[in-house]
Structures are given as structure tokens and as C-alpha cells.
Amino acid sequence: MAELLAIVEEARAVPMTAGCMVPRGDVLDLLDDIKGAIPTELDDAQDVLDQRDAVVGHARENADATISAAKADADGMVAAARAEADRLVGEARAAAETLPPAARIAAVIASSVMRAPPITTP
Fold first, then answer.
1. Alpha carbons 11 and 5: distance in angstroms, whole number
2. Lowest CB count within 10 Å: 16, 47, 72, 82, which one?
3. Nearest alpha-carbon partner for 9 in 36, 27, 25, 34
4. Residue 11 confidence (pLDDT)
């Protein structure tokens, strides 16, 4: 490309026109070289694009797998926490059954107070 530019810049001007005279053979040889190089460059560029698409696709697959695993782990943790809470509530109820009636009433009152929404002041 630089050689072609140099030939045109150094060419003799044609009087009374904006044109110039260039050596036809040299210019045609350079154009053939350029024409031959373009498909190679396009193939290389397409290879780069194909590699980019493969990398992006692989990254998306990894991201999807990571998200799925995280969701499964979170679901498992929530299920385990619920099971533990249910177990603790069952134990507390069983323990409450062994209390005398007055203590059971106090436990029910305390339990309802704990579940009540917090009191807010204006």
C-alpha cells in the first residue's frame, strides 16, 4: 500500500489536469499483491472472530453452570435450615408439654409477644 502511494505521489503530472502518469506495470503488480493479501487477512480475521465466539460461548456455559450450582446449594441450605427450625420447634413443643399448666400459659404469652410486630414510635 505504501509503495502504491509513493508511486502515485511521485508520478508526473499531466498538464492542465488533475491527473498523473504512473508506470502501469508497477501499479498492476502492486494491486495484484494487495489483492492476494486481502483474502489471507480476511481469513485470519474470521479465525479471530470464531475463536472469540468460542471463548464467549464457553464462558457463558461456565457461568450458567456456576449459577445453577449456586441455586442448588442455596436451595439445599434453605431446606436444611427449615428442617432444623422444624426440629427445634418440635423439641420446644415437646418440652412445653412437660411444663405445669401455669408455665405453659406463660410460654404461650411469651411466644405471642415474640411474634408480635415491633412497636414503633412516631
1. 10
2. 16
3. 27
4. 81
Q: Taking the C-alpha atoms of 9, 12, 15 and 16 in order, what is their torsion angle to the nearest 10 degrees?
A: -20
Residue 122: DSSP 8-state: -
User: What is the tens place of the pLDDT at every residue in 85-100?
Assistant: 999 999 988 887 787 7
Instruction: Give exposure, 26-36, as e/b (b: 16+ Cβ within 10 Å).
Output: eeeebeeeeee
Checking if the pLDDT of 20 tops 70, the result is: yes
Q: Kindly report the pTM of this predicted structure.
A: 0.47
Residue 113: what pLDDT? 65
DSSP 99: S
How far lies 5's CA from each of 9, 15, 36, in Å? 6, 21, 18
69-74 own/partner pairs: CB under 8 Å, 24+ apart: none
Distance CA 74, CA 65 (A): 14
